[in-house]
Structures are given as C-alpha cells and as structure tokens.
Amino acid sequence: MQVERGPLPETAAQICRRVFCELRPRSRPPEVAVEFCRFANPDSFVRIEGDRLELRVTDVLEGAPGPVLEALAHILLGKLFRKPVAAIHEHRYRLYLNRREVRRSMHLLRQIRGRKYISGPRGQHYDLEEIFEELNLRYFNGLMARPLLGWSRRPSRTTLGHYDPSHNALIINKILDSAALPRLAVEYVLFHEMLHLRYPAEQRGARRRIHTREFREAERLYPRLREAKILLKQL
Asked: Rounded to an integer, what distance in angstroms lies between the CA atom of residue 148 and that of residue 164?
C-alpha cells in the first residue's frame, strides 16, 4: 500500500524568500541564509548585502511553526525596508513568545547564557540593602526574601530601576545615588521594584500586563507617592 505524502514544510529560508517577494514583488529575490544562534534573549537580526539576505534568529524559534517564522520574517523585513507590519504578524509572534513553555525556555536560557553586571548594594551616598530591609519591615511584614541588589553601571535618563527575574536581581539607576537627591527618591523607586517581586507580570494571550490591579492598589498605599513622583519628574 502506497501512502501519499503531502508537500514538505517550507524551510525558514524559503519562508523568508517568499515574504521578501511579497514585500518587494518587483525586486529580484536574493539568496537567503538563516542562522539560528545561541542568544541569551529572544533577539533576531536581519541585514542585506548585495544579493544576499542574512537573518540571525534566536534558537528558541528553531522549532517554531511556519506561521510564527513567517510572522517574524514580516516583522524583520518590514523594519528593514521601512514598510508597515500588519497587526496579525505582530500579534501572532507575540502570542507564541508568551506561551508558557516558550517563556520557561527563555527564562532558563537567560540564566544559563546571560551575563548580569551587579555592583554591590552600597553606593556613595545610599545603601540599597539598608533601605530594602526598612521597606521590607514597613510594607511586607519582613517576609520578602532579599534579591541581589545593586546600582546600574551607568546613569540613565529613561529607566530608574528594574527587576530581572532570570537573575533575581534588582537594579537601581546610578543617577539616584546622589547627595543632592533626597532619600525619598531612592526609597520610592526601590519600593516600586519590590512590588514587581510581590506582584509578577500577568500573561493573557499576547498581552503582558506588568502593572496589575493588585500592583497599583499596593503602590497607592505608599504615603508619599505623589511627592515622590513629582520629585522624580524633576530629574
């Protein structure tokens, strides 16, 4: 008995070539090379040189379904050629990355492959460990386990602090370690990031909610919230 076989699935290179032809139907299709790389994050890159299109894709996506790779190709080539990307492609790609097993794989890869610069908690003017313990007693009944605490390597005007769950590290912007800045600024930013430990982000389909309702309610309990936010806006 002979079993009829369906068409073989497209390779990643074939998918990218097809998407290229859709976006630039009047251009000659280039040679396409796709390399799955051992990145620490779900990053992917594309470049074109002459008649060769090169894509470097995170190996997290090596076994991804064809429609997901097609969505990524639309996103990368759309940015390369400055063409709008249909919402369906953004949604499909984000939905796949937010699947529980994919998020678990990315979390493990960050732990294994990623590097995290973490300075000590003691700055020139403020000690993050001391402030953490005070906030822990005041707002969390002293029950929050202390993560790795440190100041950022360089000052930043955009990110005041962040919590990295892959390395269980809480990093505060070095710009706040200043004698000219009241302790309130450091305390509130640290409190805000501690809330991220207490109330992790929620995944709902393709949407990732960082500041949940519980998070906002807990943040409003900070007595000098308005004063702290006004202070930080002046930076």
From this structure: 10
